[in-house]
Amino acid sequence: MSKQRVLSGVQPTGNLHLGNYLGAIRNWVEEQNNYDNFFCVVDLHAITVPHDPLVLASNTLTTAALYLACGIDLECSTIFVQSHVSAHSELAWLLNCVTPLNWLERMIQFKEKAVKQGENVSVGLLDYPVLMAADILLYDADQVPVGEDQKQHLELTRDIAIRINDRFGKKKEPVLKLPKPLIRKQGARVMSLTDGTKKMSKSDPSELSRISLLDSPEEIKRKIKKCKTDPVKGLEFDNPERPECHNLLSLYQLLANKTKEEVQAECTEMGWGQFKPLLVDTTVAALEPIQSKYNELMAERTYLESVLEKGATQANEVAINTLNRVKKSLGFLSI
Ligand code: AQP
């Protein structure tokens, strides 16, 4: 039996952080042998908010290098850049024409990000989930491993696919495959270091809110030292009054590869003064192998470019088939 297909991606909008790693990339790596994987650097998404053209290309390359440094294996996974496969933009247009505007206006991420953009909010930001639907549907993906924040976009992707199938498919021959979200409980929502009720995010103006995968040990120490805590004695999971405590314990649990029970037993009696150095050491140790692999890869630019070139060819082969299938079902003239 052939393996199920997985598609996922991260925007090259800055340094990847522990949320991107624990919520997405680490899970891709852990499960990659079980699937046929396409991992994409979603650079077209990165321009839905104001961006700096001088850093887009380098951020794209560093994101791809981080995929490899985190352990993506080219034996079972394809790594490519979204803008290198033009079918993404083309399918997004076709999907745009069947997607009701009010489906997009409901998207929480749009509402949150639009507030930050004020009057300058672009049509692209509103349309982002349709492009994301195109990303997924082009590869006939069975599973899409994402963090909790992307669940609503995945539901929209399914709704768009159902609409295309209902309108243009045949009963036994749907045009598009319906993908499923793959959301792990652990790491699905890593929260900001400065506010345990907000998700850790690349676009948070405060660097102190996140730990980037490329932060030096000194930066990690500084950020954890300054992170928000509370005056309550002892440490505990799952107390809604103590979101920072839950988040920091969860980070420790995931980075130390321990069970919740082990962490509970180890940390219940601890104060912040004892726990924070432990979290610093654990984070530094978890990121060290990724950083050294990353540095090796960045010294081999030609190799990285060849990975992306090969990835684009492999991705194009799959994507063009789906695009042609959709165009045919929508009634376009072919030559
Ligand atoms: N805090 C998080 N906890 C768990 N998972 C997260 N992801 C992002 N933040 C967290 C997951 O990472 C993948 C890639 O995300 P993205 O870069 O495409 O966009 P995003 O979700 O918008 O991430 P950011 O960091 O918040 O970026 P900006 O600030 O640029 O918008 C997704 O699978 C996501 O679920």
Characterization of the model:
The chain has 335 residues and is mostly helical. It is built from 13 helices and 5 strands. Strands 1-2-3 form a 3-stranded parallel sheet. A two-stranded parallel sheet has the order 4-5. Helix 3 crosses helix 12. The longest helix is centred in the C-terminal third of the chain and has 30 residues. The chain is globular. The two termini are 35 Å apart. 38% of the residues are buried. The mean pLDDT is 95. Adenosine-5'-tetraphosphate binds next to helix 1.
Briefly summarize what is shown:
By secondary structure, this protein is mainly alpha-helical. The protein contains 13 helices and five strands. Residues 10-11, 13, 19-20, 23-24, 146-147, 149-150, 188-190, 199-203 line the site of adenosine-5'-tetraphosphate.
Please bin the fraction of helical residues.
40-55%
Amino- and carboxy-terminal Cα gap: 35 Å
Radius of gyration: 21 Å
Q: Any idea what the shape is?
A: globular
Total helices: the number is: 13
The largest sheet, given as strand count, sense and whether it forms a barrel, is: 3 strands, parallel
Strand content: 5-15%
